[in-house]
Structures are given as C-alpha cells and as structure tokens.
Amino acid sequence: AQRVTQPEKLLSVFKGAPVELKCNYSYSGSPELFWYVQYSRQRLQLLLRHISRESIKGFTADLNKGETSFHLKKPFAQEEDSAMYYCALRAGSSNTGKLIFGQGTTLQVKP
Amino acid sequence: DAGVIQSPRHEVTEMGQEVTLRCKPISGHNSLFWYRQTMMRGLELLIYFNNNVPIDDSGMPEDRFSAKMPNASFSTLKIQPSEPRDSAVYFCASRRTSRDEQFFGPGTRLTVL
Predict the structure, then answer these.
(1) Which of A103, B56, B102, B108 has the smallest set of CB atoms within 10 Å of its CB?
(2) Are B8 and B107 in contact (CB under 8 A)?
C-alpha cells in the first residue's frame, strides 16, 4: 500500500538551530516525493520536489530509497519558517499522478 | 491569474443541513482535486477529476458526500446531510498535467454544529 508517514505532529526549535522534519514512505515502485508548506493564513504551496534536487529557502531534502525516507532539513531555522509542512508521494508509474500526503508536521521556530 | 478560487471561505451550519462547497480551478488546468484537512488525519484526498471526469473517488467518506464537475471551470462538493464530524477545512487544487505541480485554493472552513 502507498503510504506517507510523518511521525512528528509538532516540532519546536529555537531560531538558528538545525531542523529536520521526518518523512518515510511506503511504495513498491519508483516514487516521486514532494514537500508542501502552508504558512499561517496562506495557501498550501509546493516547497520542493526530489527530482529537482534544489534548495528552496535554505531547505533541502534527499530521497533515500534504502531507508524509504525523504527528510526535510535546514541548517539554521528562521522564525519565518514556522508553518505546517506536508510530505507527499506520487506513484511514479501512475498515469493518474495523484498525491498521497502525510499527516503533516507543524514547525514552530521560537525567537 | 487569481489562482484556484473557493467559496465560501467559511461555512457554519447545523447538523442535517445540506452544504455545497465550490471551486474554480486555474484556467487551462485539466485536473481538479478535493481534499479534506483535519488535525487527526491531516490532508486526505477525497476525489479528483481529469478533464471533468471523476477518476478516483475512493477517498469519499460515504454516500453523504458527492462531487461534480459540470465544466472545466467549476466543481462542487456537496455534503447531504451534514454531520459534526464533517467539520474540517476543505481544499480544492488544480494542475495542468499529471506531471505538474498542484496549486491549492485557500480552503473552506466548514463547521457543522
């Protein structure tokens, strides 16, 4: 079964501390992984996707097929990073391309 | 482009009433998605359409929920009768092709008393 697991509902760190939001997935094929972010009173929006191998707002995420993980990392958290973060999986071979989301992690960056 | 538009933004109703949520996707986008967001279950896909045709409605909780897409620029999600456990934020999203990013609307916060 296709599944995305984000084990932490809430992650609270101090400004300047490193951040790692965990994401594990279950999928037998070749997955595409995404991170979406929802800032307060804003729409859910794409943060990054693994195929792009890019860094957005200082965040990076590496797909680890051995550990079936796609953790989101940032070396120095900023207060403006406070938001809800969703990890999502798209079945790579599917022609439907629907996304399966994790339960989300709220990141709280304290001053 | 104003992005995906949803209405109403907030809806408060009483148990047993019919609720209709509306969505206008981004022009030129071929797929439309309805999601439900709750604290307990996070973001769940309810149903999605490709070229106005429902492709996967396996996430629709029960027969009280129905969704339509009569044309490329409009979709509705209806709950009849509504129950308190339906209280959630309902998001609509659209995308151009199956390989593209999904763009989300602002959501409708539904409260069923």
Answers:
(1) B56
(2) no
DSSP annotation string for A30-50 = -EEEEEEEE-TTS-EEEEEEG
pLDDT digits (tens, 9 = 90+) for B38-97: 988 889 999 999 999 998 888 898 899 999 999 999 999 999 999 999 999 999 999 998
Q: Is B102 exposed, middle or buried (0-12, 13-18, 19+ CB in 10 A)?
A: buried
Kindly state the tokens that stand for B22.
């509306």
Max CA pair span of chain B? 40
Residue A68: which residues within 8 A CB-CB, separation 6 or more?
A: A24, A25, A26, A27
Q: Is A101 on the interface with B (CB under 8 A)?
A: yes
Residue A94's pLDDT is what? 53
Question: Could you report the per-residue pLDDT of A73-97, keeping only the tens digit for each?
Answer: 999 999 999 999 999 998 655 556 7
Amino acid at A111: P
Contact at CB, B56 and A98, closer than 8 angstroms? yes
**What pLDDT does residue A27 have?**
87
**B72: phi then psi, degrees, rounded to nearest 5:** -70, -10
B104 with A44: Cβ contact below 8 A: yes
In angstroms, rounded to a whole number, what is the distance separating the alpha carbons of residues B79 and B63?
9
Which residues on chain A are in Cβ contact (under 8 Å) with B105? Answer: 43
Instruction: Look up residue B107 and give its two tokens.
Output: 């959501």
